[in-house]
Design the sequence.
């Protein structure tokens, strides 16, 4: 599957663009599940000004998708039409600010944020040691672990909207809730300011080690996965329902419900994205049937199915009771 090459049109519209463009770039290489088709165009902006220039000049009709480190994504086998934006080196700055604060670019991995906070004696951010995404993904998903969430430590974020205008967003405007933000879907976060408290670097590093050990013992972090597949329904937990519905270890094509943690799907035998999505819908259907609860996907599914195959929505309908 490959898309028409948009690069000549983009180059003609944007002579001053400084970032990198690639046509039909494989996304399986840069997402955790290691499945899925190409991006029609993959754009890596040089910095926030370059990103704003791009968005101000790209056709309004061109679909734009932003991805981070791909740890919460399932890219479908037909790939993603339009432009996929992935932030890189131009968004990887980390600066310690007075008052136990850290200002970071949104391409910074969460693990690196946790480590920088520890080095600076800033406590409160050690939970990010357990989240394998980027700061941009953490802002969009209100990432959290071990009893803390992004909303507990964020002061403000900066974003660029679809027209290329820059915005500063204080915490309240981020509307962070369980695994989501209320900021318009097409805004791209570029920078974040975090607030911690004074702490001892040695104690913080120890706490981070404990987080890492817990992860290793309880989650399939060495597998090709996408993290928690479904959100915890209010008052319940997704894994308990999946277990009660008899889905632990369930297999579909090259994908499997993890034996270790059954809210994780894994690609252990060269699965397609369709294998993974179909398995997820099978789990949802069984949980609905046996426990009377409807699980909501936490993993973000993007793009088109293989030509002639069903979309995720159609799959869900096919599995509905
Ligand atoms: C083994 C494993 C363990 C995990 N454990 C946890 C956990 O404990 N807690 C938790 O919360 N999550 C967990 N996750 C899920 C995932 O790591 C988080 O959701 C993370 O925040 C996603 O970040 P990312 O950079 O990988 O984003 P992606 O997966 O690439 O994208 C996720 C969403 O964020 C959006 N996005 C990414 N960057 C930006 C940006 N700059 N601006 C605007 N939108 C953006 C994307 O459009 C998409 O909607 C886990 C995942 C794995 C694989």
Sequence:
């Amino acid at each position: 599957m490959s898309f028409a090459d948009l690069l000549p049109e983009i180059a003609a519209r944007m002579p001053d663009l400084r970032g990198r463009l690639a046509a039909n770039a494989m996304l399986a290489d840069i997402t955790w599940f290691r499945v899925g088709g190409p991006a029609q165009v993959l754009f890596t902006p040089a910095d926030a000004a370059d990103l704003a220039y791009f968005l101000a000049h790209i056709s309004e009709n061109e679909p734009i998708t932003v991805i981070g480190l791909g740890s919460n994504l399932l890219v479908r086998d037909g790939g993603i039409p339009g432009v996929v934006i992935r932030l890189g080196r131009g968004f990887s700055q980390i600066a310690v600010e007075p008052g136990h604060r850290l200002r970071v670019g949104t391409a910074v991995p969460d693990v690196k944020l946790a480590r920088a906070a520890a080095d600076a004696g800033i406590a409160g951010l050690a939970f990010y040691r357990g989240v394998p995404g980027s700061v941009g993904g953490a802002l969009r998903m209100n990432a959290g672990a071990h009893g803390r969430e992004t909303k507990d430590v964020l002061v403000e974020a900066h974003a660029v909207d679809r027209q290329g205008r820059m915005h500063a967003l204080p915490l309240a405007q981020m509307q962070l809730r369980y695994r989501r933000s209320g900021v318009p879907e097409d805004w791209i976060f570029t920078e974040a300011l975090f607030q911690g408290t004074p702490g001892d670097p040695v104690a913080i590093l120890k706490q981070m080690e404990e987080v890492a050990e817990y992860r290793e013992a309880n989650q399939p972090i060495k597998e090709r996965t996408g993290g928690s597949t479904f959100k915890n329904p209010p008052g319940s937990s997704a894994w308990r329902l999946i277990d009660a519905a008899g889905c632990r270890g369930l297999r579909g094509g090259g994908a499997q419900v993890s034996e270790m943690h059954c809210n994780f799907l894994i690609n252990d035998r060269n699965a397609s994205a369709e294998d993974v999505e179909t398995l997820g819908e099978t789990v949802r259907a069984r949980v609905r049937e046996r426990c009377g609860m409807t699980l909501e996907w936490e993993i973000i599914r993007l793009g088109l199915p293989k030509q002639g195959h069903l979309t995720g929505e159609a799959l869900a309908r096919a599995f509905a009771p």
User: Anything to note?
Assistant: The radius of gyration is 20 Å. The chain has a mean pLDDT of 96. The longest helix spans residues 273-291. Residues 32, 66-73, 87, 106, 130-134, 136-138, 140-141, 143-145, 188-189, 219, 221, 225-227, 300 surround flavin-adenine dinucleotide (CB under 6 Å).
